[in-house]
Amino acid sequence: MDKLEIINEINKAKNAHVLWFANAMALSIGTDPGDSSVPKKHTECTFGKWYYGAGQENNHLESYKAIDGIHKKLHDKYNEIFNEFEKLSAEGFFDDITLRDSPKQKEFNASIDELKNISKELLGKLAELENVL
C-alpha cells in the first residue's frame, strides 16, 4: 500500500470513529441511539478492524503502536458509560428533569467528558501517524 492509500485508510478509520462517537454522545442526553450504541470489543468496531487488520502494515511505527492502548481505553470507558446509561434508564433517571443537576448527573457527565478527552487523544495520535507516513 502506498502512502496515499494508507492515509485514505486512516481517514476512513477516523470517519468511522467520529460516527461511533456521535452515537456515544447521544447517551449523554439520555437518548439511546439503538443497536449502533451497543458496546463492542475494541477489536470489533470498524476502526478496530482496520487497526488490527490492514493497518498492521504500519505496526513498525511508534505513532501506530501508541494508538492501541488509547483505543482500548476508549472502549473500556464507553462500556462503563453504556452500562451506567442502561442502569440509569431503567431507574427512569433521564425522564425525571429534577435530577438534571444531581450528583449522579454530574458523575455521568464527568464520564462523558473523559470519553471526549480519550477520543481527542485518539484522533491526535491518528494525526501523528499521518504526519510520519
Give an account of the 3D structure.
There is one protein chain. This protein has 133 residues and is an all-alpha fold. It has one domain: Four Helix Bundle (Hemerythrin (Met), subunit A) (Up-down Bundle). The chain contains four helices and no strands. α1 packs antiparallel against α4 and α3 packs antiparallel against α4. The radius of gyration is 17 Å and the shape is elongated. The mean pLDDT is 85.
Multimeric organization: single chain
- State the end-to-end distance: 12 Å
Extended strand count: 0
Query: In CATH, what is the class?
Result: Mainly Alpha
- Percent of residues in helices: 55-70%
Classify the fold: give the CATH topology: Four Helix Bundle (Hemerythrin (Met), subunit A)
Largest sheet composition: none
Number of domains: 1
Q: Give me the secondary-structure category.
A: mainly alpha
Looking at the structure, what is the overall shape?
elongated
CATH architecture: Up-down Bundle
Could you give the order of the helices and strands? HHHH
* Number of separate helices: 4
Provide the β-strand percentage band.
Answer: under 5%
Low-pLDDT parts are: none
Task: Using the CA coordinates, give the radius of gyration.
Answer: 17 Å
Q: Taking all residues together, what is the mean pLDDT?
A: 85
